[in-house]
Write a structure and sequence with these properties.
Elements: E1 2-5, E2 16-21, H1 29-32, E3 40-45, E4 56-60, H2 67-82, E5 86-89, H3 95-105, E6 110-113, H4 127-135, E7 139-142, H5 152-165, E8 168-171, H6 179-189, E9 193-196, H7 207-213, E10 221-222, H8 226-232
Parallel strand pairs: 4-5, 4-8, 5-6, 6-7, 8-9, 9-10
Antiparallel strand pairs: 1-2, 2-3, 3-7
Helix pairs in contact: 2-3, 5-6
Length: 236
């Protein structure tokens, strides 16, 4: 495993970037089974989490959730974190950051997959959250080492890693046309379990989740409680 030195500055203390290729023992086995596995991933933090992904869940959703979306994300991620199940998300605004913070509040591990490189951490607003994740035994993952700004393609590539790392993905609130549904579709195509929290049929913020659950797509299972997901995944 090649180890590089992370940029230091006002935000970061000195951490190491681990360069993990497909031939490395730390390369996540779940990623080997997706259609387009990254040739290498770059990690900052507790890489031992890559050996316990069988008990992890990817939680995704809207960057601008409403009150219901916030409450549901806090509820599901809080119980999941209390059961020491690793929460994986994308460090984005909204539901991603809520999920990471609930894990931190419960001293539970969390993994953030970022769309850019570590020297262009996105979003800038969450640099403090990224540092807190690393300091508390979590992990940051990127497909890029440096000099990579985010674009439409890098978000999609990030989403496939989020979906591929975990045996299941939970969407708590999302629009029909959103990156969260792209992640759910990746998870479904990768033969992972997909769960979605239902919402009011007249609320556009819940339209994505309702669409995933509907007979029209049959992509997601109905998520009525975090305990039901834990039981279904045999994490008791």
């Amino acid at each position: 495993m090649q180890i590089n030195s992370l940029l230091s500055g006002n935000l970061w203390e000195i951490y190491e970037i681990y360069s993990i290729s497909m031939s490395d023992l730390y390369y996540p086995i779940p990623l080997e089974n997706i259609s387009t596995p990254p040739i290498s991933i770059y990690c900052v933090g507790n890489i031992e989490l890559l050996h316990s992904l069988n008990k992890s869940i990817s939680i995704v959703g809207s960057r601008h959730p409403d009150k219901y979306g916030i409450e549901m994300t806090e509820y599901f991620s809080d119980i999941i974190a209390k059961n020491k199940i690793t929460i994986i998300s994308g460090l984005a605004l909204g539901i991603d950051s809520i999920s990471h913070r609930q894990a931190l509040r419960n001293s539970s591990p969390t993994i953030a997959v970022i769309p850019g490189s570590f020297d262009n951490l996105y979003p800038k607003l969450h640099r403090g959250l990224a540092l807190e994740i690393v300091k508390n035994g979590g992990l940051l993952i990127s497909e890029y080492l440096c000099n990579k700004n985010v674009d439409k393609d890098s978000f999609k590539r990030r989403n496939r890693i989020i979906a591929g790392l975990s045996p299941c993905t939970l969407v708590t609130e999302a629009l029909v046309r959103s990156g969260s549904l792209i992640t759910a579709r990746y998870a479904f195509d990768f033969d992972r379990e997909v769960f979605a929290v239902p919402g009011n049929i007249d609320n556009k913020m819940s339209a994505g989740c309702n669409f995933l659950i509907s007979e029209e797509t049959n992509i997601a299972k109905l998520a009525l409680s975090p305990e039901a997901i834990i039981q279904y995944m045999n994490w008791n």
